[in-house]
Each structure stands twice: as C-alpha cells, then as structure tokens.
Here is the input.
Amino acid sequence: MSDTTTSFVRTEMLPEQEPPASQSGAIKWIRDNLFSDVLNSILTLIAIYIIFQIVTGVWPWISNGVWNTSSLAECREVLDGATGGCFSVLTERWNQLLFGFKYPPEEYWRPIVAFILLFAAAAPVMFIMFLPKKLLVFTAIYPFLAFWLIWGGTILTPVFAAVGLVVGYLVYANLVRNSFAAGFFGGIAAAFVTWWISGFITAAIGPDFMALEAVPSRDMGGFMLNMILGVVCVSLSLPIGIVLALGRQSDMPLIKWICVVFIEFIRGVPLITLLFVANVVLAYFFPPGSSIDLILRVIIMITAFSSAYIAEVIRGGLAALPKGQYEAADSLGLDYPQAMRLIILPQALKISIPGIVNVAVGLFKDTTLVSVISMFDLVGMIRGPILASTEWNGVYWELWSFAVVLFFVVCYGISQYSQWLERQLATDHR
Amino acid sequence: MKKSVFIGALALAGVSGGMAAAGTLDDVKARGTLNCGVSTGLVGFAAPDANGEWQGFDVAVCRAVAAAVLGDASAVEFVPTTGKTRFTALASGEIDMLARNTTWTFSRDVDLKFEFVGVNYYDGQGFMVPAELGVSSAKDLDGATVCIQTGTTTELNLADFFRANGISYEPVPIETNAEAQPLYLEGACDVYTTDASGLAATRAAFEDPSAHVVLPEIISKEPLGPLVRHGDNEWGDIVRWTLNALITAEELGVTSDNVADKAAAADPATPEINRLLGTEGTLGEMLGLDAQWAVRALSVSGNYAEIFEDNIGESTAIGLARGLNASYTDGGLLYSPPFR
Here is the structure.
C-alpha cells in the first residue's frame, strides 16, 4: 500500500482560460458583424469586391503620379500612356491655390502667421473651460492683428479702430447706468468721433508708421479667401444671429418686426443673388470711381445671410426651453439681460449647437460661390486661371481632389469639435 | 458694437475716394494705372501664369494701351470679369476698357451704350466631334447630343442653324468651357460647339487631339474686340488707334525688334512708318499723348502678328491659323484705316 492518497478535490483553482477562438477577438467580431448570416455574407463579399476595385483603380493613379513637370503635355510625356495623376500642377501652383495669384510671394508668411494665430485666438473661446479667461484678451486683439497682417498698411489703422471700440465701450459703460439708449448712442458717437480724430493723427504720423506692404483686397485669393470669408462671417453672424433671435421674440413690436422682416427676407433670397447684388448692383449706387471694397461687400452679404439662418436655429433652441425656465428667471428677480445671459441662452445655445455647426459648415462651403462674381477663391482659381492656362488646361481630378481634401479637413474638424463640445456640455436629462 | 467697428475699420481701408470725371484719359493718368477688364481665364486669351503675371492675346491689348498712355506696360490693374459681370463693371466705371473676347453686336453697341473700338479677333462658332464618328459636315449631325454653354449667343446660333437645315439635336447645357471638356470626353455629348478658337484650345489640351476633328462649318460671325463706354470719344480714340497701330505695324513690317531703330530717325522712304512712330507729323499730339505713344505700344510685345503668334498662333499649344485674322494683304480681314 502506498502512502500517496489520491485527492478527489482540486486544491487550487484552475487558471482562467482564453475563450474559444470562435468567441473572441477579431474572429468573433467578423462573424458577428460581417458574416452573421447568408445575406450579410453576400453583402460583405460584394462590399469587399467594390472596395478592392476602387483601391486598385485609384492606387496606381496616386502612386504613379508625376510631381515635377511644368505642363500637362510634359506630364503626359513622362507618363507615356500609363495611368497616373499629374500632381505637378499642385507643386507648381500650390501658392496660387492657397493665396491667389496676386498676393506677393515674399509676403506669404503674413497670412500663414495670421492662420496660426487664429488657433491661438480661437482656443480661449473654444476651450473656455480649460484655459484662463485672461487669454480672451488675445482673442479680442486678434481681428485687428489679423487685418494688419493680411492687408498690411500702417498699424495705426487697426490700432485706432480698436481704440475707437474701447472708447465707445467706456462711454457706453458710463452712460448706460442712467439710460440704455444714452449709453448705446453715446458709445457709437464716441467711437465715430475717435475714428474721425484718428484719421488726422494717422495722416500726421504718416502712412508708413510700422507699415507692412499693403495688399489690396482685389489681390486676395485662393483658400485664404475662403478662410477669411468663412471665419469672419461665422464669427460675426453668431452674435448677430443671437440678437435677431431674441429680437424676434421681443414684446416690442418695432424690434420684433424689423427682425422678422430681415430674417424672412434674407432667407427667402438665394445667397448667389445677394452676392450678385453685392458685386453688380451696389456699384450703381456709388459714384463712379469710388466703391466700398468688394470683400467687405461680400462679407456683409454672407454675414446677413448666415445670421438669418443662425437666428432661426437659435430660435429653435429658445423654443425648446420649457416656459418654467423663463418663469424661474422672473421669480428670482432677474432682469431681462441677466435672465438671458445666466439662464436662457446657455441652455438654448447648447441645444442649438448641432444646428449652428450645420450652418457654419454650410456657410464655409458656400464661400466658394464668390467664384461666380469673379473673385478668385480656391474654386475660382481652379476654374479660372489654372484651367485656362496653356500649361494646365485639361487637368481636373488632381485639382478638384486637392480642393476636396482642404475643405474636408476644415469641415470635419469643425464637426468633430462640435461633437466634443456637445459631450462636454452634456448635463442633460436623459 | 464690435461688428460696426470691424466694418468701419475695413471700410476705412476700403473706400477709395475720387470721382470719375468725364475724361477717362485724365483719370488714368492721375491714377497711374489702367483698369482693364479681362476674362477670368480663357486659354490663350487671358490667364495668369505661374508667377501671377497676366498673359494672353486680350491682355496684350491692355498692355499696349497702358504703354501708350502711361509709358509702362506693367501699369495695368487687370480686373477679371465673368460673362455676367463684364458690362456692369465697364458701365459703372470700375474699369476703363474691356478686352475680354466680347462679340461686337448691335444691341451691345447701341442699347448697352458701349463703343467697340475695333476687332482684334474674328471668331465664329464651330463644331468638334470625335473622329471615330466619321462625320465630315455639321449637316450630318441629325439627332446628335450637343454640349453647349447656356446663356450665350452660341446657344441661339445653334438653334438657328439646326432649324435652317431641318435637322434635330438634343442640347446638353453646361456652364463653362472647363466643364464641357470632361463631359465631351466622357461621351456625355457627341458634339461640342463653341467659338472656333475655344474649340482649338480645348482640342489642344486633349490627350490625343488627332482623335477629334473640328468640322469645317462656321455658323456665326463673332467679331471680338475691345470696348469702352459711350460718351468719351477721346478715350475711345486712344484705344482704337492703339489697336490700329498694332495692326498697321504688321502691315508696314514694324516689329518689336526693329521699332527702336526705325523710331530713332525718320526715314524719308517710309512716310507712313514715320507718322506711326512719331518721327514725322503730330498724330500723338492729336490723341492727347506724346509723339512716342505708338513706339511704346509696339515695344511691349510687338505688332499684331507677333502677339498672335506668341499667344495663340501655330507655334503655341493652341495652334490657331491666322485665317480671317490675317492682314488684308494676305487675304484676311484685318484692315486698319491709314495713319495720316
């Protein structure tokens, strides 16, 4: 008889085992999602086939692309009948696509700096919950700085524009305690007086004081023009849209009707019509030879257009709030501006984010419409000068793909930011 | 508040004062630049090159006028205009002259109150078809689908032509020449019709131009020329005679190479050259310019023949033959009144 005893009960736990191969990892995922039944399997195979066709069709075009020829004919010679993209149009004309064909090349750094600073200026607004409030000062300075960088000229113009704004605000802040109307009109009057005086000061100091080489609006072009129009119009139309939305809900008939007529009129007119008005019709109203800058006219029209849309989006947000919120604000004894600022608008704007982003993305893409009034934005550059040059007449896919990539990057970025913002602000009741 | 300031700031920078008085010439001299309306881009006629310099057949007319008036061929502010904005730009005074392959028609001359100062290119509407179609005449095109730019005179000409010949067609409306090219190549239409110069330029850009033929029929008259506003005849005269100087110079054999020599001293054997180049007579003075005006205009890019060859002629990718645009001495239509 041996000493060993056979135990019938394990003394230690078995280690956890991997799940069976068919029930874990990639295999399970593929089974569940791609081949769960016959129909799905067929669809999966068809989809794989289509993707395969697209990739094998497009890949040679990209990988075989020609990057360093100086004309389409030369590029076709290099390709010698093989499939391949003539991307050399991009390497040769990239500067025209980005900046337009008349922006002086040695000044390209200026819009680039303005573009980089745009992020610095937008960050305090976009990530206001993480960054110190003091950074908003830079955001306030940015429009004037960017104007100086992109348009050039003496720094006095944007500086005095900013000074006029500050003076106007100070007058407003002093007078508004007595009466809102006195503050409002006093502020505007003070600002205009400041600008009027600053005209003489600028003339006295001279137009070359800290001047960058001036670039007229007519020379702006390419993707830069889309960015200028998009950024300026979106940032202007948001506050105007809020004012219009609130005005439309106002109890004061005059304000209400002004807002209603403005919104309904602008929404009832196609943007392209407004642009033609800006370009063609306005020219008849000014004395010959004098005209307001074309970019400014276009900015006014696009801003009016998008603020009408944003106003309606925000009105939707306001309408979604239960009446109790308004009553709660009243019962706390808040006056109208306080109630709006502290209770109503934060909630209404949060609800409106997807709609506002929708309008902003649409607006950004609509800036390409300026190409029909002979402004050379990205699309205008492609349709006009580049496709009409003897060297590149006949190149389509390469140029339009480039435009698609640029617009997609920006629009997708805006979209991703808005989704992130929605998650950040999610305090909802679901 | 913020809005008004920003707009104000832009407006300060943007408002360019100064009323345009009656004399365009004085305005141009005071401004120091010529505002010349051109196309937003038409192969061979007007397009900026890789350095952003405008080049082309129409552009050369602008430069010649600028050289004649201001003595500087680069003192031109090129204002790109579309087919829709060109006339308002001229009427409102935004541009001093328009050199944008614009057809001289009765209603534009009379009703729109413009003055065409001459013709720098005689064009006409033609047809292009793939060679494999085996069509040799436009009259064989019964039932064809035709790519055509909407809102142009070509659309109306096409309808007239097909109706007159009792054949049918199906139009495929398109917006621009650039849009027509891929549509035609993909076979969305059998025929592409536009001005013959445009057809030649389009065909030249194809991967295999020999696979397409331009049919012999030219179904319309399209005299293209520069124009100015009604009512300022002094200015109109300057543009007209600058164009005529280019044409006359070809006739007389004055080129960009020999213009300096010929202008250095009057040669008694060639009185008309002397009058043209200002070594004899006072033609420049009569125009309100100096005697050397035509010399400067010709020094920029030469006479009409040189401009034609450099931009759209047979040595270029576009490869247009002179055809109607040859001097009358060579059987063409170009005929300048004498410089006397």
